[in-house]
Amino acid sequence: MPEGRTVSRVLVLGSGPPPKVGQLHVHLREQAARGIGWRIEPTRVGGFPFTPLDVVLTELGHVDAALRAAPGSADAVLLDTFGEYGLAAMRSGLVMPVIGAAEAALAEARLAGPRFGIVTVWPESMDWLYQRQLRLLDSRENCVGIRYVGGAAASEQTPRETLGAMHREDAGWIGRIASAMQSLVDEGASSIVLGCTCMAPVWEALAGRASVPVICAARAGVRAVLSTLDSAGSHAATQGPPASITAVKALVDFVDRGPAATDQDAACPVCITAPE
Question: What average pLDDT does range 38-67 have in this prediction?
């Protein structure tokens, strides 16, 4: 980093715990030379978004974390999860760039060619979430298909087991993902989007086995936030404090005292987490 340059500070939401305590995730470590101050923020409420109802708390947790941590201590927010929980609300409550991993990844996919496919380690029971994202990002017509390699249904153990497999670069998982990618290429995909930021540890292995570009959503989000900071500069300000921001914080203060905040078994270590 050039002498005298101010370090850009990025609040990161949605990244689960790294493989080692105190270690940054691989897609954040790769940018060490850029002099970015990454701050991974835990959420006070929420759990794995098994259903649209669960997403209500998940989004509330993300928005509360952003409103508490970003003002005065961040230049941008990176929503490091394909579900981008609370993205629109954050953008309406913060006067700073808020970047979503899925939005960044699908933008790169459209640049790579007219059609893309998505491969995710989550099970088919999460299809509603991916269909929601495609609809919100106006990308349904560009997507040739989605492959779910995580089995038939999500359970409370699914997130933890899946995250562990990604960190281990499990050969069985990599083989299944690669096979799913090829099936989408055979159907006309010009690129493949990895449909969960937890897949960042296996991106390099997968990219080497594909005949088309493989877009890691986690890295796409990082690239987008860095590009935004380079062009926009520092934006450490808020729109507030409007009554809605105060209400969100008060609501989470109330919920944080209840069972939803202490039920760690239901929490997803990938998308919603607290320091261990």
Answer: 87
